[in-house]
Amino acid sequence: MCELSEAITIDADPGTVWSVLVDTDAYRAWNPLIRYDGPVREGARPRVRLSLPGLPAIYTRPRVLSVVPERELRWRTRLPGLTATHTFRLRGGAGGAGGADDEEPRTRFVQTERFEGTFADPVVTRFERASSRGFEQLNLGLKRRAERRMREQ
What's the DSSP call for residue 38? Predict the structure, then answer.
């Protein structure tokens, strides 16, 4: 098993971050990594286009495993010799550090891809840099959009 992960702190409450994350129709406006066509519900099989920086797009049909509003969205893609589980996790709290005097809402957003199977090591070795850059770009796009939405509320 191999795992890639990128995290970011977003100055917005988990409800706002979640609303941006599950508005898949708006991904073209802010999400350079993923195009998602289908429902965001457990058991769904959306069409997903993954665009890692500097590489051709990859098209998959993952199965959505978990949709926990304001907490987690997770799906799994199975290919011959490889299973990839992509997870978005949100953890919120005032100030992000739990300080009583800090009332600003914050969300810790963590994006993880876990690879299992015969080809897990070669895939991660070959695509780790591009995947990490793609995760960073998605996280930053989500941060900008959610923080803008918070300011407009």
Answer: S
Other C-beta atoms closer than 10 Å to the C-beta of 92 total 20
Q: Which helix (H) or strand (E) holds 150?
A: helix 120-152
Q: What is the DSSP string of 22-68?
A: T-GGGHHHH-SSEEEES--STT---EEEE--TTS--EEE--EEEEEE
State how far the Cα of 27 lies from the Cα of 43, in Å rounded to an integer. Answer: 21
Structural domains of the chain, ranges and CATH numbers in brackets: 2-152 (3.30.530.20)
Q: Tokens in use for 133?
A: 């850059």
62 burial type by CB count under 10 A (0-12 exposed, 13-18 middle, 19+ buried): buried
- CB distance 109 to 8 below 8 Å: yes
- From the list 66, 21, 24, the residue with the least C-alpha distance to 44 is 66
Q: What is the pLDDT of residues 12-58, one digit of tens each?
A: 999 999 999 999 999 999 999 999 999 999 999 999 999 999 999 99
Kindly report the length of the chain: 153
Q: What is the pTM of this model?
A: 0.91
Measured at the CA of 13, the angle between CA 10 and CA 14, to 5 degrees, comes to 90
Q: What is the dihedral of CA 30, 36, 39, 43, to 10 degrees?
A: -130
